[in-house]
Amino acid sequence: MSSCGSHSHAHSHAHTEPSSPLPQISVNGKAIREEDLANELQYHPNKDFEVVVQQAGQTLVIRELLHEEARKRCIEISAENEEEALQQLIGDSISYEDPREDDCLRYFANNPDKFTTMPLMEVDHILLAAAPDDVTGRETAKNQAKRIIDELKNDPLLFPSLAQQYSACPSKETGGNLGQLSKGQTVPEFERQLMPLKQGLAESPIESRYGFHVVNITRKIEGKKLEYSMVADKVRGYLTHRVSHLAIQEFIQSLVEQAEIEGVEIRFAEENIHI
């Protein structure tokens, strides 16, 4: 991917080194093996090693609680059928009501932005590059971007030559032109700020992980609102997933509350139930 962020980016999976020994975790007196915890860490990438350990530990605790519950109910679990058996256990343990049609219609009406196609834009930009952790460099880039915007307000035809002169993106060779952009074609923080803009020169620089961008939208086709009939299945599927996920979370939380767990804090604040 070019440094200007004009295409979707691959996730980097930098290896996170432990900053402290792994905690000793136990569930109802049964210890989670340290090698199992160490192996689980790789599935929870995060810059903060404490978060990695918490999420990995929580996953193993929940898995052990489900295994315990399965044994109580005489559900046979082997290496070959583990996932299937645990899903059966969960399926047998939860109940929820499917969303009604009026629930679906209400969700559709209350979330119009979710059911509108993304705008299509022709975009030119100039990237003033600065590393995310370079505070001074980012301030300099931001101020330079503001000066370029002021210059372009006086003479918009200068865009290609200013792109050639200042931009750190390969697109400078084509006057800063990124071509047609829609959803998912730029890094998220750039897209989030870009899509609501009107046609023309953006009043302020747009900040991204790469630095600050001077942006000119040469053409914009607004998104279209979708009809309910076109997305009814999607709405119903989303609401069904949401209520089933909450039911699973409540079931697992009930197991957690009845258990003696040491060495890790179990958090249900986010959708972090991994089994």
Description:
The longest helix is centred in the last third of the chain and has 31 residues, at 228-258. Strands 3, 4, 5, 6 and 7 form a five-stranded antiparallel sheet that branches. The protein has a three-stranded antiparallel sheet with strand order 2-1-8, with helices on one face. Helix content is 43%, strand content 13%. Helix 1 (34-40) crosses helix 2 and helix 2 (49-72) crosses helix 3 (82-93). Mean pLDDT is 89; it is low at 6-19 and 270-275. It is of the alpha+beta class. The protein folds into two domains: 26-105 and 231-262, no CATH class; 117-221, Chitinase A, domain 3, CATH 3.10.50.40.
Features:
2 domains, single chain, 13% strand, disordered C terminus, Chitinase A, domain 3, 8 helices, 275 residues, alpha+beta
SSE layout:
Layout: E1 26-27, E2 30-31, H1 34-40, H2 49-72, H3 82-93, H4 101-110, E3 120-129, H5 135-154, H6 159-166, E4 177-181, H7 188-194, E5 200-201, E6 206-208, E7 211-221, H8 228-258, E8 261-262
Helix pairs in contact: 1-2, 2-3, 4-8
Brief summary:
A hairpin with a 2-residue loop joins β6 and β7 (211-221). This protein is an alpha+beta fold and 275 residues long. The protein has two domains: 26-105 and 231-262, no CATH class; 117-221, Chitinase A, domain 3, CATH 3.10.50.
Largest sheet: 5 strands, antiparallel
State the helical fraction.
40-55%
The N- to C-terminal Cα distance equals: 34 Å
Please give the domain count. Answer: 2
Mean residue pLDDT? 89
Count of distinct strands: 8
Q: What is the H/E string?
A: EEHHHHEHHEHEEEHE
Structural class: alpha+beta
Which regions have little confidence, pLDDT < 50, spanning 5+ residues?
6-19, 270-275
Instruction: Give the C-alpha Rg.
Output: 25 Å
What is the approximate shape? Answer: flat
Number of distinct helices? 8
How big a fraction of the residues is strand? 5-15%
